[in-house]
Amino acid sequence: MSLKTRPEVLRYTAFTTDPAGGNPAGVVLDAAALEDAAMLATAAEVGYSETAFVTAADHEARRFRLRFFSPLAEVAFCGHATVATAVALAERIGTGPLVFDTPVGEIALDTAAEPGGSVTASLTSVPTRSRPAGDEEVEASLAALRWSAEDLDPALPAHVAFGGNEHLVLAVATRERLAALDYDFDALAEVMHRHGWTTLQLVWRAAPDLFHARDPFPIGGVVEDPATGAAAAAFGGYLRTLGALPPSGAFTIRQGEDLGRPSLLRVEASATDPRVRVSGQAVPIPGANAGTGEEGA
Prior knowledge:
Strand order of the largest sheet: 1-2-3-4-6-7-8-17
CATH superfamily of the largest domain: Diaminopimelate Epimerase, Chain A, domain 1
Mean pLDDT: 94
Helix content: 10-25%
Oligomer: single chain
Number of strands: 17
C-alpha cells in the first residue's frame, strides 16, 4: 500500500479511561475506497487484535457500516473496536445515538459524555444464544489450555455462547487458576478453527455481579484480548440461559488485569430479552493518532 493511498488510522483503547489500560483498537473512519486486501494489510500493520473500518457513512442519520479485521482475517463482529469507533465518532460529530451495520446485523449504540471529557459507548448486541458444550469440545480445549476438568467450576457448566461471534465459555473454580493461564497457542488455534470459535471466554465468578475474564485469541494471531465486548455480550446470554443473572440483570467483567491492561466492561441482560447491552469508555492513545497512522503498534 503506497503512502498516497494509506488510510488515516486512529488508535483508541476501549473499556478503560487509562491510555495504558483497556484493549487497543485501530479505527479507520473513511474506508469506503479500501478493498479487502488493503483492510487486512492495514490491520496487520496496526497489529492490534482488531481494527474497525467505516466503509459507508450517513452522518445526518448517524448510521455507519463497519467491518472488522484482525491481523490475520476478517472478524464478523468485535465489541471493543465497536466501542472505540463509537467514541471516535462521538468526539467528532457529537454524542447521542448511533447505528452500525455490521456483518452480523444492526448494532444500536448510545454515546454520552462523562465528567472530565471522556465518552461512554453502550452497544446493544444482536440476539444472543447459548448451548451446552460437547464433551469433545471441552476435552480438546482443556488439553490445549493445559487444564483439567477439576479446575472448572461445576456451578457454571461449559457452554458455547453467541453474541455476534461464538465463544467457548469455561468457568474456573479459583482466581489462581485463571491467573496462571499458559496455553498451547497452536493447539488451541486448531481447536477454535475446527469449531468456529472467535475467543474462549475464561471466567472466574468473584460475586454474583462480578466476574474476572481472560480471552485467548490465537486464531486472530493474538495471544490474548485485554477486553472482549462480543464475548461479554455472549456471556450475558450464557448467564440468562443458566438462570444465573443477578437480580438486577447487571454485572461487571474485569479483564486484562493479568496482562497489565485493566479493563472494565459493564453488562446488562434480562431474562426475557436475548439482546445484551455492553458499556464502556474509550480514550485515544497519546502520540498514536497524528498523521497517517505510520506509528508502530
